[in-house]
Amino acid sequence: MAKIGSVQISTPVMNAACSVAKSIEDVEALSKTKVGVILVGSITVEARDGNPEPRWFVGEGYALNSFGMPNGGLEFYRTNLPEMIEIAHKADKKFALSVAGFSTAEYVSLAKLADEAKVDLLELNFGCPNVSIDGKQKPIVSFDPVSLDEIIQAVSEVTKVPLMIKVSPYSNPAELARVAEVINASGKVSAVVTANTFPNGYQTEQGEPVIASKFGGVSGSAMLPISLGQVRQFRNSLRDDIAVIGVGGVESTEDAKQYFDAGAELVQCATLIVRDGHQAMDKIVAV
Ligand SMILES: Cc1cc2nc3c(=O)[nH]c(=O)nc-3n(C[C@H](O)[C@H](O)[C@H](O)COP(=O)(O)O)c2cc1C
After folding, report:
1. pLDDT surpassing 50 at residue 287
2. Pairwise CA distance, residues 149 & 179, whole Å
3. 17 C-alpha to center of ligand 1: Å?
4. Going from the N-terminus, what domains does the chain have, and what CATH number goes with each?
5. Among 1, 29, 201, 215, which has the highest number of CB atoms less than 10 A from its own CB?
């Protein structure tokens, strides 16, 4: 049994935010797996088609993606969240929503939606590297502790749903420690989810970038030691009442066990299910 804030979770394994966690069909497919939590997202205020294709590349032991968060937008989810939550709850699973704003006000609008829909857990995506505004890469909130704190405070004014903060991997340990301090001091965060993809991977085949928008987030097994290190460092730096959720390269029960040994309360998987389908989640959950 795992716990995030006041929420009890039967099985400490869940899907991560990704391209196959957006629709009612995705929720139905995940409800047939052994996960303890079904997560939908990331969702944004406006509907998005995402980035041009190709936007997904599978290499040996890693993947690159630049989906750019395609999703139906706030109004689509206002209509569809009740059914999604019902499917999750009927299968005895908790329901989490991952949201990504382009401003503090947008995070607040999305948090209000989550509150009204009565989701069990709310994940704030502070780590998406794959979005451009007017041709320039959107700043990644994970690397700006002032904005990170401002958004946490503004969101917690409008909802009491336990907050999970999803961050990018930090290559500078001092930067990780500074973010942990801000999260500790906020008094509003129930869990830190680490890590989002490593930003701005790049690869070519026959001289051409494998991703249409050139750069992509790195995920999969190559992220395992990096994200395990992030979990260990956050566990050492965060208050005891803030859980750490491990994500990055989880493909087996052995991988998950390494995360639990490093101090994770739960693990999440994305690449595994984008590549192999939703049912692959059951490889992680020991029977
Ligand atoms: C295709 C794809 C789409 C993703 N979209 C999102 C997203 O919308 N929001 C988010 O927070 N993370 C997103 N991620 C990052 C994953 O949730 C996860 O943090 C990262 O991929 C590392 O885990 P993995 O090695 O299990 O894939 C995405 C990852 C992939 C592979």
Report:
1. no
2. 9
3. 5
4. 2-283 (3.20.20.70)
5. 201
> From atom 28 of ligand 1, which residue's Cα is the shortest distance away?
18
* Distance in Å, CA 93 to ligand 1 centroid: 21
C-alpha 128/C-alpha 46 separation (Å) is: 16
CA–CA distance from 287 to each of 10, 264, 265 (Å)? Answer: 13, 20, 18
pLDDT digits (tens, 9 = 90+) for 118-172: 999 999 999 988 888 888 888 899 999 999 999 999 999 999 999 999 999 999 9
pLDDT per residue as tens digits for the range 10-48: 999 999 999 999 999 999 999 999 999 999 999 999 999
Contact 28, 21 (CB under 8 A): no
Q: Are 153 and 69 in contact (CB under 8 A)?
A: no
Phi, psi angle pair for 282, to nearest 5°: -70, -15
Measuring CA to CA, which residue among 249, 250, 247 is closest to residue 123?
A: 247
Distance CA 125, CA 107 (A): 9
Question: What is the Cα–Cα distance from 94 to 9, expressed in whole angstroms?
Answer: 7
Q: Best substitution site from 13, 18, 251 to test ligand 1's pocket, by max atoms within 8 Å of Cβ? A: 18
